[in-house]
Amino acid sequence: MKRYSEEQLKDCSKEELIDIVLDVQNRALVYEGKLALNQANQFGSKSEKMKELVPEAQIGLVFNEAEAAYSGETQEPTAEEALSPEPEPEKKRQKKEKGKREKDLSKLPHRIVPHEIPEEELREQLGEGWVRLPDQVYRKVERTVKVEVLEHHIAVYTDKAHKKIVRAPHPAELLDNSIVTPALAADVLNMKYADAMPLNRISEEFRREGLNVCRNALSSWVMRLTERYLSLLYDRLREEMLKQRILQADETYVRVTEDREGGRLGKSVMWVFRSGEYEKEKPVILFNYQRTRESAHPETFLKGWSGILESDAYSGYKKLDRENEGITSAFCWAHARRPYADDLKVMRSRPKEFPEAVIKGSLAYEAEKQIAAIYAMEGREKRESPEVRLKYRRENVKPLVDAYFDWCREHQGEAPTGSKVEEGIRYSLNQESYLRVFLEDGEVPIDNLASERAIKPFAVGRRNWLVIDTKYGAEDSAIVYSIVETAKANGLNPREYLKTLLEEIPKHMDDKDTSFLAGLLPWADKIRLSCSASRR
């Protein structure tokens, strides 16, 4: 911004002074808006729901969830409902199907708790010849945590001459001279990577249960088991993912103690690559740690792959598109919407300055309404086949997209330079060709929110441990997060899946190839049967 001295302002004409004042006002409004947005982001709602599509009464509360969800008419869940593999939504109860109770409880271990009356007391109350009728049965649910030592006794045999010794077959040790078992290791990995618990808290939790394992020992287990066993599956999952035509990508920053810049903690990057949102048969979610955000990293990870990559508008993804003939970039409509949503958030946080009538007459509101209409129309055929979805998009969604870009061109230059609305219009017009890609392929999602959801568990865990000690720890974390999130995407129980992997992979360490991993992929029939999240 040009600075004027008092003498220069005195020499300005009236028109020049008006231009200067208007420019200062516009800049002040922009900076004021940025400050208000920071305050709204810090203290306001973090939701990205479009209020035009979601009635006010349905917008959930977060902080007071317990109070909001409670109703004086709320009924306690029955044992069958609490243990049902598919929890029913909190709506009016429907009549249960016949045999549902037995089906829901059949896979659970049962412990009978008898309640009987001594014979002497029965004779006093009923006299001689009393008869016991069928028991009255009711069910309650109890969750117990039990730590026990598995003492392996390996039978040892010898011949009469004591020249030959034979030992009974027994499982190989996961780690030499370690007490860790597949079940215990799976507990640690599940608590850290699925439940976002740092290792020191896991150690404290174990100590309360009577098991004393220090943080360093847990860390050693995680790194050694990941590098020795789980990395094999990670590599195989990457091979499987690169066979798919539609992928999505995102990234977030992480601080790693070992990777420093000038003695200070630098920002390293955790990338996430995942199957397209509509891939339901073999979904894969993979994390990849790198020191920087350079475009060479996704290019290396996706080497040999061709297809459509959904992402944000980071220039590194555009470079992939430009320099790789087989890769097409598709950009995210949620990112196109956010500048307008941010502007509306600022206005709604200051109702005295921006009454609802002013908000509804703003450019941000008009843009938000048009994008909301695109999402609403797109959502109607979300569950259809790609062919049906593509036809529907061309007939019903494309006209709305065309209208939005016409609106952007019509109002380009009207918003103050540097404002959120100006940013939104500029972003949409600059990325128009990439934002239109979803209209030409029924398998491409409209946005990249699936990737953002996939990376969220890592971001939640990051709040608990803040930094990672070494780049090796970051690489190992990427592997375990990948297996956990892929398991969840395939409807598996992450803990059971990790336990199965640590039971089965060690059996094949002397194999000459890794073909055995095909039977351990999350969509393998055996795995779905034994590790399903609905299996108790």
Describe this structure in words.
The protein is of the alpha/beta class and 536 residues long. Among the domains are: 182-241 and 482-531, no CATH class; 333-447. Helices cover 48% and strands 10% of the residues. The protein has helices at 6-10, 14-43, 65-69, 79-82, 100-105, 119-126, 182-194, 199-208, 215-241, 296-301, 315-323, 333-348, 356-360, 363-379, 386-411, 420-430, 432-435, 449-465, 471-489, 494-504, 525-531, and strands at residues 156-158, 165-167, 246-261, 264-275, 285-290, 307-311, 327-331, 467-468. Strands 3, 4, 5, 6, 7 and 8 form a six-stranded mixed beta sheet that branches. Strands 1-2 form a two-stranded antiparallel sheet. The longest helix is centred in the N-terminal third of the chain and has 30 residues, at 14-43. It is elongated, with a radius of gyration of 30 Å.
Topology:
Layout: H1 6-10, H2 14-43, H3 65-69, H4 79-82, H5 100-105, H6 119-126, E1 156-158, E2 165-167, H7 182-194, H8 199-208, H9 215-241, E3 246-261, E4 264-275, E5 285-290, H10 296-301, E6 307-311, H11 315-323, E7 327-331, H12 333-348, H13 356-360, H14 363-379, H15 386-411, H16 420-430, H17 432-435, H18 449-465, E8 467-468, H19 471-489, H20 494-504, H21 525-531
Parallel strand pairs: 3-6, 3-8, 6-7
Antiparallel strand pairs: 1-2, 3-4, 4-5
Helix pairs in contact: 2-12, 7-19, 7-20, 9-19, 12-14, 12-16, 14-15, 15-16, 19-20
